[in-house]
Amino acid sequence: MADPMPDFASQRANMVETQVRPNDVTDPRIHAALRDVPRERFVPGVRQALAYTEGPVEVAPQRYLMDARSFAKLLQLADIQPTDRILDVAAATGYSSAVLGQMGASVIALEQDADLVRIASDTLRATGASNVTVAQGALTEGAKSSGPYDVIFINGGVERVPESLLAQLKEGGRLVAILQSGPQGRAHIFVRQDGVVGSRGDFDTVVPVLVGFKKPVGFVF
Which stretches does DSSP call E strand in 57-168? Predict the structure, then answer.
C-alpha cells in the first residue's frame, strides 16, 4: 500500500504556529503569506519532506532556503508595504520571491545560476506569482536597470553588503541582510535617509553564507 500524500497545508500552518509566531513575528500579513505559498513546491523532490523542518533547506549545491524563523523575522524587519518595489537577491528556486510578491507591489527575483533561473521561473509561474519577474545576473551587482527599490532583501548570510546594492535603494528604502562574522550572525537593516545610508542591528541568527558575499581576504602580517 502506497504511503499517504503529505498534508503540506497542515505543515505550513504548523510552521507558522511553532516556528514563526512564537519568535515575535506579529505581522498578520507575514503569517498569511507563509500559510499561502507552497514552500514544498520550491524544494527539489528528494528533499520535499524537509521543506517545513526548522533548519535551512538545501535546494542546490551551497544554496538554501532560509529557516522559517530567520526568514519571517527578516521580512518583518523590512516593513514591506503593499506599494513597495522589491529586489530579492539570491532568489534561488523562487520561494522568497513568491512570499515577497504577496506582500509588495512587484518583485525582481535576482539569480545568477542559469539552472536556478529556469527553476524559479517555472515554479513561480506554476504557483501563480504574477507580479514576480526573474532576472539573471551577478548577485552582488543587483539589478540596476529595474531599480531603484523600496526594499532589497538578501537571501542568506553575508560578510559584507556591497555598495553596488546599497546604491539601488530609493530615498527611504530599506535593505535587510544577515551579517555573519565567523560563527555569529546578526540581522541588520540599512536605510537611505537624505541620501545617506545608515544601519542598525536587530536579531541574532545564523544562516549559510552566500558565495560572493565574503569579505576579501586581507594580508596577514
Answer: 57-60, 63-65, 85-89, 106-111, 132-136, 149-158
pLDDT at res. 2: 45
Q: Would strands 184-193 and 196-204 be described as parallel, antiparallel, or unpaired?
A: antiparallel
> What's the rounded Cα separation, in Å, for the pair 215 and 212?
9
pLDDT digits (tens, 9 = 90+) for 128-177: 999 999 999 999 999 999 999 999 999 999 999 999 999 999 999 999 99
Q: Are 97 and 88 in contact (CB under 8 A)?
A: yes
Q: Shortest CA distance to 52 belongs to which of 109, 107, 13, 94?
A: 13
Under 8 Å CB-to-CB from 183, ≥6 apart: which residues? Answer: 206
pLDDT in tens, 90-128: 999 999 999 999 999 999 999 999 999 999 999 999 999
**Which triple of cell numbers denotes residue 162?**
556591497
- Count of CA atoms in the C-beta half-sphere (13 A) of 177: 25
d(C-alpha 90, C-alpha 93), whole Å = 9
* Contact present, 121 and 134 (Cβ < 8 Å): yes
Q: pLDDT tens-digit profile of 151-164?
A: 999 999 999 999 99
Q: Are strands 149-158 and 196-204 parallel, antiparallel or unpaired?
A: unpaired
For residue 213 the three cell numbers come to 558575499
C-alpha distance across the termini of the chain, in Å? 66
Give the 3-state secondary structure of residue 112.
coil
